[in-house]
Amino acid sequence: MSPLDRLTPQRPLGQVPPERLSIGVAARLSRYLQVLTQARKMGKETISSQELADYTHVNSTQIRRDLSGFGKFGKRGVGYNVDSLVSQIRKILRTAGQHNIALFGAGNLGQAIAGSDVFADHGFQVVALFDTDPKKLGKKVSDQLEVRPFEDFRKVVQQEEIVVGVLAVPPEAAQEVADELVANGVRIIFNYSEALLSVPPGVTVHSSSPAVDLLYALYFYLA
Amino acid sequence: MSPLDRLTPQRPLGQVPPERLSIGVAARLSRYLQVLTQARKMGKETISSQELADYTHVNSTQIRRDLSGFGKFGKRGVGYNVDSLVSQIRKILRTAGQHNIALFGAGNLGQAIAGSDVFADHGFQVVALFDTDPKKLGKKVSDQLEVRPFEDFRKVVQQEEIVVGVLAVPPEAAQEVADELVANGVRIIFNYSEALLSVPPGVTVHSSSPAVDLLYALYFYLA
DNA sequence: TAGATTGTTAATCGATTAACAATC
DNA sequence: TAGATTGTTAATCGATTAACAATC
C-alpha cells in the first residue's frame, strides 16, 4: 500500500475487504482445489506451488500470489499442507456446504457421471437421475440412485433444493430440458450435450467441450 | 509500431510474421471453432461476434480483434458467415487434417466418448479402443470400433500414427497407461480419470474436470 | 548449516472494455 | 435510408514472469 492510498481510501475505514472475488481468481482457486482434493486422496501431505503449477498449468508465482492474498498458508522450504489448504480454499470459495444436483439422461454419459466421484468430492450430490426411455425407468444406477421419469422433475425441484442441472441428453432434447430447468428456478446449467443453448439473462450455461482442449494442444504439437 | 521498432527489427526484414500463435489466441480460436461447428449443424448461416460471445463467454470485442488479426472475415451489419469462418479458423489452427486417437477404457465413459461426435467433428478419429477386462474384449462399441486387449496397443501405435491418447480408465490404472503412451512416443494425453499424472517434459496432459467449473459457477451464484 | 520454497516486488505482456467511424 | 455490426483505437485492468530476500 502506498502512502497515497492511506489518504484516499477506496472504502470506509474499518469495513471488511471486498468479498467478491474476480472471475479469474475464483476459477483458479477452484482448479487448485480440484488438484488438492485429488492429491489428498493419493496420500500427499504437502505440496509446493511448483507442483500445483505442473498440474494446473498456472504459473507458480501466480499461485503463491493468489494464496498469499488471503493469508500465509505456506511454509518456506516446505510448501503447503494439503489438508489445511483444502479447508482454506473452501472457506474462501464458500463452497464448504452440500449442494444438490439433478442429472438428466441415463445413457453411457449420464451413468458415467452418476458413478463418478468428481462432484461428490466437492460437495455436490446427485439427488435425482431422469430419463424419458421407459426401458430405463427404475433401473438402479448406483446405491443411492435410480432412473426416474422426466415428469417427476417438478416434484423433485420442489422437495429438494436443486442448484445445478446437468444435461447428459441427446442434443435435440437439450433445449427442452434447459427450458424446464429455467422455468423451475434453476440458474446453473451444466451442458454435456453438444447443443448450443439459449437461456435468459441470469442463467449460466457451462458447456464442457473436450475437443476444444484437444484442438489447441494439437496446434502446439504441430507448430 | 513505434519509430524505434523500425530501427531495431525483431526479425530480418521481408520475413513472414510470427507463425506461432499465443496460447490464449489458440485456445480462444478453438472455442470459436467448436461453437461454429455446432452452429453449422443447427443450420445457422451467419453469426455475430455478440452471439459468439454469448456462447463462449469471451468478450465480443476480443473476438472481433482475434479474427481481424488474420483478415477481414466479417460483413458489417451482418456478421460472419459460419461456413467460411470455420474454414478460416481451421486454416489458422492448421487442424484441417485427420488425426488419430487411441482410447483407453471401455466403461460407461469410454463408450460415451467413442459414440460422441465431439472428436469426429474436428477431424479426430478414434482408431482403437482398449480395455483389460476379458468380458469386454471383442465387443462392438460402434460400427467402426471394437474393444481390443490393452496388449495390442504397441502394434496399433506402430501401424497407425497415434497423436493423442485418451484415458477413460479407473484412476488407479491411469499412470500405467500414461507411461505406456509416453514410452511409445505419444506426446498428448487427455486424462478423463481423476488421477494426477506424472509425465516427462515435452508431454502435455490435459485433465478434464467439470467439477471445477461447477465450483466457481456456484461461487458467483452464492455470492 | 545448506537447500528449498514461500511471500513479495517490479516490469512486461496480454485481456478487457468502451467507444465509434466505417460500411454492409 | 435506417439499423446493425464490423474493424480498430485507446485506456485500464489483470496475468505473467523474473528475481530475490526471508525463513523453514
Number of helices of chain A: 10
Which two chains form the greatest contact, residue counts included?
A-B, 62 and 62 residues
What is the CATH topology of the largest domain in chain A? Rossmann fold
Overall average residue pLDDT of chain A: 87
Low-confidence stretches of chain A: 1-18
Number of strands of chain A: 9
Integer tally of domains of chain A: 2
Rg of chain A, Cα atoms, Å: 21 Å
**CATH architecture name of the largest domain in chain A:** 3-Layer(aba) Sandwich
Q: What is the topology, as strand order, of the major beta sheet of chain A?
A: 6-5-4-7-8-9
The SS-based structural class of chain A is alpha/beta
Task: Break the fold down into its secondary structure elements and pairings.
Two copies of one chain form a homodimer.
Chain A: H1 3-7, H2 23-41, E1 46-47, H3 49-56, H4 60-68, E2 74-75, E3 79-81, H5 82-93, E4 99-104, H6 108-115, H7 118-121, E5 124-131, E6 147-149, H8 153-159, E7 162-167, H9 171-183, E8 188-191, E9 204-207, H10 210-222
Parallel strand pairs in A: 4-5, 4-7, 5-6, 7-8, 8-9
Antiparallel strand pairs in A: 1-3, 2-3
Chain A binds a DNA duplex (24 and 24 nucleotides) through residues 22, 24-25, 48-50, 58-62, 64-65, 67-68, 72-80.
Q: What does this entry look like structurally?
A:
The structure is a homodimer of 223-residue chains. With 223 residues, chain A is of the alpha/beta class. Chain A has helices at residues 3-7, 23-41, 49-56, 60-68, 82-93, 108-115, 118-121, 153-159, 171-183, 210-222; strands spanning 46-47, 74-75, 79-81, 99-104, 124-131, 147-149, 162-167, 188-191, 204-207. Chain A has two domains: 3-92, Winged helix-like DNA-binding domain superfamily/Winged helix DNA-binding domain (Arc Repressor Mutant, subunit A, Orthogonal Bundle), CATH 1.10.10; 99-212, 3-Layer(aba) Sandwich (Rossmann fold). In chain A, helix 3 packs across helix 4. The structure holds a DNA duplex (24 and 24 nucleotides).
